[in-house]
Amino acid sequence: MEILQLLWQEVLGFLGVTPALEILKSGDYSSFKTYDGIASLIYPIIPLLLLLELAVGLVYKKPQIKVYKVNFLIYIFNRFVGRFIAIAMVTYCLGLFSSYAILETTNTWYWFIYAYIVWELGHFVYHYLGHKVRLFWCLHSTHHAPEEMNLSVTHAHFFLEAPYADTIRTTVCILLGVKPEMLFTVMFIDGTYGAFIHIGENMIKDARFGFLNKLMLTPSHHRVHHARNPLYMDTNFCNLLNIWDRVFGTYQEEQRDVKIEYGITREMNSGNFLDVYFGEIVALFKDVVNAPGILNKILYLFMPPGWSHNGDHKTAKVVRKAYLDNS
């Protein structure tokens, strides 16, 4: 019975309904007007959309079941291995860097806009490094391995990625004066929207959202980010505001004549949990072992994926430039 109760609690936790149920049990419905109450109503939206997306896919016989299967295994693995690490890193960074903030903000609407722009900068930095540094790519590649886009991809992360991502994002925000309470609000909004942009074509076929495609990052932009097509590789690193992609030249819109191919360029079995989760680490280990000299071994750790000590580079930058030059 204890096992069944534990499983039931895990199901409720996945669905995100526990906070709302606690408020309902208390009978104090006015709590729904508070920040925590509103958050409790928003939490279940993405998990419920995920289940609806899967159901629609089953009806139309379109989902890649192996994608859902592997992402579910990743979710379970991460729940037990890396559950509290990211929270601990955020708390540590708050205490460590708060006294070094270069300016002081207040809880006003204009500083909130500033906070969101700063958060997006931190997100861009972490995300960019995740694609441009081989060691970090080993953590981030798990998220790019699925060969279909759907909401379950939200949960496809190596357990160490969240700690290093939140360390970078939190540090940038705190040093630039974002107050902790505002930071947590931004993190909640960004986390919710960051899950939504993984919605699949079974639910939303054309995810450009009309004129919004020019003003913000839409699911269409993020589908481009997850593509392995040469035109799309290593673009659209932002999460909601695509300002930094435009600033740093990594912005790319989805082209109607270039069909998105999801996944990573390494040959792999996307239905195999071990290959999805540890495959890039194994590949890096082999490259380091076979590389001649200490310097080349170190370079394999920090140079972009596709870099080679013999000069035969197949990095995203090289592949994309060759494609654009021949277009």
From TrEMBL:
<keyword id="KW-0812">Transmembrane</keyword>
<protein>
    <submittedName>
        <fullName>Sterol desaturase family protein</fullName>
    </submittedName>
</protein>
<dbReference type="InterPro" id="IPR051689">
    <property type="entry name" value="Sterol_desaturase/TMEM195"/>
</dbReference>
<feature type="transmembrane region" description="Helical">
    <location>
        <begin position="41"/>
        <end position="60"/>
    </location>
</feature>
<feature type="transmembrane region" description="Helical">
    <location>
        <begin position="109"/>
        <end position="129"/>
    </location>
</feature>
<feature type="transmembrane region" description="Helical">
    <location>
        <begin position="80"/>
        <end position="103"/>
    </location>
</feature>
<dbReference type="Pfam" id="PF04116">
    <property type="entry name" value="FA_hydroxylase"/>
</dbReference>
<keyword id="KW-0560">Oxidoreductase</keyword>
<keyword id="KW-1133">Transmembrane helix</keyword>
<keyword id="KW-0443">Lipid metabolism</keyword>
<dbReference type="InterPro" id="IPR006694">
    <property type="entry name" value="Fatty_acid_hydroxylase"/>
</dbReference>
<feature type="domain" description="Fatty acid hydroxylase">
    <location>
        <begin position="113"/>
        <end position="250"/>
    </location>
</feature>
<keyword id="KW-0472">Membrane</keyword>
